Amino acid sequence: MGFLNLFAISSMPVIKVLLVTGLGSYLALDRIDILGEDARKHLNNIVFFVFNPALVSSNLAKTITHESMVQMWFMPFNILITFIIGSALGWVVIQITRPPPHLYGLVIGCCAAGNLGNMLLIIIPAVCKERGSPFGDPDVCSEYGMGYASLSMAIGAIYLWSYVYNIIRISSSRNSKEVHINDLSITKSSSESSTVPSDISSAEVTEPLLSPNQLALPRTRFEEKPQVSFSDKIRQHLDMLLQKMNLKRLFAPSTTGVIAGFVVGLVPQIRKLLIGETAPVHVIQDTALLLGDGAIPAVTLVMGGNLLKGLKGSEIQKSIILGIIIVRYVALPLLGIVIVKGATRFGLVHHNPLYEFVLLLQFALPPAMNIGTMSQLFGAGESECSVIMLWCYALASITLTLWSTLFLWLVA
């Protein structure tokens, strides 16, 4: 297939995303105010709690079988590799650009976590339906492509809320502690200078007075400390880890939808009841598909409205934005080609052009939009995150088209 034909096939999905995103930005303007901040919040809640779970559960239920599970085992490792390499490259960006400490987590998060759900859910069906697509029958391609994209969304959500969430949390808490310590030191120095008389020497001030209780021997000096078993220590560390992790976000509705899709797809008795036109209660599956169809346009409109915040600008260094763009749109896709093609050559990935295309595309996506939610939650670089997202998604229209064309050429 000619390179120009592949370029045309790759550009159509991106153009559709741009059109819907532009409409979302237009509706979010102050003079239009149809998709204002409150409206975006409510629509995002509907997508999060209703549309996304219905979308991923219905598509996985149709495509997940024991055979497909064997083929898709590499995807969780592939996504984990994108997070690990992205984090390492994000650390390099921090060493080069020297951003403020409270932005460390934001930079690493933007380099590590891609938009593994929504973008794939938009791009894959559009590529399948284009004339001349190298993936064969459009209906079969869309069915399996949506299954791959749904699984990618769930795995990405788990990594995002268990890993990136805690990186941003630790970065923001470290900055707040530094500010708190500086405030305490200033307050302490001012109070000491105002309360200590000038005729008292520094030695007299610093010399502590010992109370009778302090002169007495400590009672606990010869007491034995209670022994803590190794299993108790492990249990304590696990309890601390679970308390710090946001389990409510980790087991998001989309993740619950994935679990439901796996149960329906892998249990033959349930599958016969729900899947197929002759299934007794196939109306449940049809309803879930109907609800899931609303996820893609709704989330794209919300994304366009959220990107409008970046137009207001901030004081973020241009070198930080450039570093994140180079990581996400140059370094990661190149490394992704080496990893995926190497895994295919060594037999780790079953030869399937559509599956390989999804694995490659996971390395070339813009940063996850939920990073903006995390920055708002911890108050760490909210305006900077909006500017980063604006530039990354504006350039994604070009980079996604070019990389998709190359990926199609590699797998076709």
Automatic annotation (TrEMBL):
It is a multi-pass membrane protein. The keyword Transmembrane helix applies. It comes from the Eukaryota. Coiled coil: none annotated. It holds the Pfam family Mem_trans. Keywords: Auxin signaling pathway, Endoplasmic reticulum, Membrane, Transmembrane, Transmembrane helix, Transport. Signal peptide: none annotated. Belongs to the auxin efflux carrier (TC 2.A.69.2) family. Involved in cellular auxin homeostasis by regulating auxin metabolism. Regulates intracellular auxin accumulation at the endoplasmic reticulum and thus auxin availability for nuclear auxin signaling. This is Uncharacterized transporter YBR287W-like isoform X1.
